[in-house]
Amino acid sequence: MKLSRRHFLAGGAACAAIPVATLVTAEEEKTGKNLALVFDQTKCIGCEACSQACREANNVPAQVSRLNIVREGPYGEGNDKHYRFDRQSCVHCETAPCIAVCPTGACFRDEDGVVDVTANRCVGCQYCIAACPYRVRYVDPETKAVDKCDLCRKTRLKEGKLPACVEACPTQAVVFGDLNDPKSDVAKLLRAKQTYRDKVSLGTKPKLYKVPHGKGKVI
Amino acid sequence: MDNAISSALHFETMVWPWPIAIYLFLAGVSAGAVLIGIAVKLYRESRGQIGYESGIVKGMALIAPIAVIIGLAILIIDLTKPLEFWKMMIYWNPSSVMFWGVMLLSVYIMVLFLFLAAVFYTPLMAIDRRYPIVGTVLALLKRFEKPMQTSMIFLAIAVGAYTGFLLSALKAFPIFNNPVLPILFLVSGASSGAAATMLFGMLCFKEKADSQDIHFVHKIEKPVLMTEIFLLFAFFLGLVFAGGVSAEAARVALMGDFWSYIFWGGVVFCGMVLPWLLQWFSPRSLTHKPGFVAALCVLSLSGVFALRHFILYAGQMTAI
């Protein structure tokens, strides 16, 4: 078979398009928002008002939860005795493994960068639950579809309100906003404070930033 | 002990339970049976014998479709919404390994049935006497036997490897997220296919334990098993060399509690060492007994069955 230069290039481009197509989806909608959260571990007091507010706002069934505050400690002695609190919830990855593995395309990212699930497209294979490195997905016992934090996009965001956890927090430990807007609260906070994100080495580009606790561990 | 077993079967990072392991096993058996069946068929044809008269080829025709269909049925029942499985056919996501698996298995099952109809053309022509239309269709299929056979080889390799890719896409688990896994599943699938076709060839189709075809399958089995051992070695050595969580995953899997016993006792001893010791050290009068060959087949099948469970559970125990 004679392979012309043109055919060779066309074939090569077609092959290259397959992996690129999956990468490009993460970059598209540059004009839209890119919503994110910052969780300040120096401010969290572990009251769990956030997870309670989340449950009420989104009607989360009692057996499962979208947002957990993980307590570690106590560390230190006497007056220095303290706990560490961490937030466990969907980090809304920019290259989300759940979206990549979902066979039906039920997992998706909306135009504002929020990762969500279309319940009636989900067949419940649970591939996304296994694929998520952050272990924040669950099967909703009522709908039988996989669900998780959607930054309240179906409930409060639509009404122009903040996500329930952000509004409920008595110490303003959770900050919400648009990474693409330099004047947003999250952008300001990320410029001012040192933050980290979990499991960045996996290439997931998570959007739950965490202000580190700051205090050392007693060994 | 009950507590130890319960903690080995239910732990925090576990998402996919045993039905998935059974599916991985059955898909591997089906793909392996097709590869071995076609090898025996080609071998017979090269010697001027008729392919479909072999008990091995008949065993393949029985076990390959049944295994994959039962496997898929288990997979569908395991969905949280089993009745909505058809949505996997109409909603597409080309970046998902499972999407490609659904497409692949649909084509695989379809071509498998058409191919089997072509292979068993002569015996099936008996139906033609009552329904002439069947003969016309069969004659058409018979003409495409060769291209279908070639496609079946590629499809079977794809199905065998697919079950590995399904797991290796899970990047948070070092034992899954490993490039050796699809090859390991393909090769161990081939050895389970060899065992299954021999077993069912003897049980259901009166294949003799010392027949030429059984000898031929035994001859293929040796390099397949050696490759499998090397792949297991490379698999775990690679994890150890990767260090960190990967090395920890290998340590938990090979030197931990329950699942390491399954590996050393089930996969390595029952599935590999014992059948070969028996094969080598038994007198010739025994190795030609159907019961003996069947026992070896059952041993190596249970070894592969144990391997799928071991990989699935031990793999989920250690996450990044």
UniProtKB/TrEMBL annotation, chain A:
Gene3D superfamilies with a match to the protein in the record: 3.30.70.20
Domain 4Fe-4S ferredoxin-type: 35-63, 81-112, 113-142
InterPro entries assigned: 4Fe4S_Fe-S-bd, 4Fe4S_Fe_S_CS, ET_IronSulfur_Cluster-Binding, TAT_signal
Keywords from the UniProt entry: 4Fe-4S, Iron, Iron-sulfur, Metal-binding
Domain of life of the organism encoding this protein: Bacteria
SUPFAM superfamilies associated with the record: 4Fe-4S ferredoxins
Designated name of the protein: Cytochrome c nitrite reductase Fe-S protein
Organism of this sequence: Ferrimonas pelagia
Automatic annotation (TrEMBL), chain B:
Bilayer topology annotation: Multi-pass membrane protein
Transmembrane segments: 20-43, 55-77, 97-121, 152-176, 182-205, 225-246, 258-278, 290-311
Cell compartment(s), UniProt: Cell membrane
InterPro entries in UniProt: Electron_transfer_protein, NrfD, NrfD-like
Keywords: Cell membrane, Membrane, Transmembrane, Transmembrane helix
Major location (coarse): membrane
Family the entry assigns: Belongs to the NrfD family.
Name of the featured protein: Cytochrome c nitrite reductase subunit NrfD
Gene name tied to this protein: nrfD_2
